[in-house]
Amino acid sequence: MATLFYAVPIILLPYILFPNSRESWLLVKGYYPLTHFYYCAILLFNYFGKVRQWERWRLSGIISSILVFSPIILLLGIAIWPEFNLTEEFANILTNIIIAIGLLMTAYCGLSMYQVLRWVRNYDTDSFSNLDDFPLSYARQVLFIPIFHAILIWPMVLFNNHTWLASIQIILSVFNVVFLISSLPSKRKGILVEQMIKNDKKEMIVADFQQLNYPPPILQDNFSRYSELMTDQKEDDALNICQNNVQASHKPQKSTRQKIMSAQAKEKIATSIKVMIEERQQFLNPHLSLDDVTEACGYSHSYVSSVLRDQFGGFFNYVNLLRIRHVDCYMKQHPEVTKEEAICKSGFDSRQSYYRVRKRLFPDEATSDE
Q1: How many Cα atoms sit within 13 Å of 343 on the Cβ side?
Q2: Does residue 165 contact residue 28 with C-beta atoms inside 8 Å?
Q3: Domain residue spans in the chain?
Q4: Burial (CB count within 10 angstroms: exposed 0-12, middle 13-18, buried 19+), residue 30
Q5: pTM for the structure as a whole
Q6: For 230-277, what is each residue's pLDDT tens digit?
Q7: Which of 110, 126, 239, 347 could covalently link to 323 via disulfide, CB atoms 3.0 to 4.6 Å apart?
Q8: Which of 2-6, 49-53, 102-106 has the lowest mean pLDDT?
Q9: Which pLDDT value is given to residue 208?
């Protein structure tokens, strides 16, 4: 299917064979605005939709496919039909149809960019515990590509310029190759994430963890108790650095909603959070999100987020410090296992993910064991 998707440009063959043909030029002029924005939208929805388990885009994708390829097939038929006489009036009608559908596909592409941007902002609000749950850097990089397409394609369509077409074909070829190469590994990662969720890996990890007889201590207000499990002095130094960073970056917000939240309500929410994440060992779920915690606790998203930020240093920091601590405890109680195995038993997807989190929480820590 992917091969067929990227083989569509072969329909431009009539223009290659007959570049001076009026019918072939109309085919090219229609192909770029109709297909390129459609491609960008479908690629964005397809990859990021899989990562976020979001399938609502598929109906719009089917409708847009019909809107795009119906006129493309018509234009191709006109270009390869040797006896067809394209009148000026009919050519203007087709041009107006191309521009209308092209603008619609541009808007559709803009909608896909807006949806991805919403996910980027959601990820930035400390809603996830796994750096691999959403490819934040990749999302920011690819969002500019449809903008370049619009800047290059629409002048060619509006000004009917053959020279401009030759220029943008070279430029767009480079952008399309970059876009395709960058999409392929990310698509494989999205499928991997989907399979890991379906395999219910969490239950197996929790079952192993219950055999440790490891009582998870309470982490509240700061992370000082974490250092009690460490024997290496560098862990204490790194923890102090992390604690200072957390306190500096997560100052309590004096909003109206927080002011009216009583101390008793905060304590109830904090207790629910600790029961859900620590006592039920949900931090071992590699894809635990703030929405999962909010749903389990039965309180509003803003209340749970506020308590996590003020009393636990933030959702991401809290969950991943528990995971890092579990790695060390697991290795102490199971000296025969490798560190990579202990990492996988502690809620991390991979060794790379573990060290990325450590680097984020303990930026000044030496990583000689990596």
Answers
A1: 15
A2: yes
A3: 2-198, 205-361
A4: buried
A5: 0.59
A6: 434 444 444 444 445 444 444 444 444 444 567 888 888 888 998 888
A7: 347
A8: 2-6
A9: 39
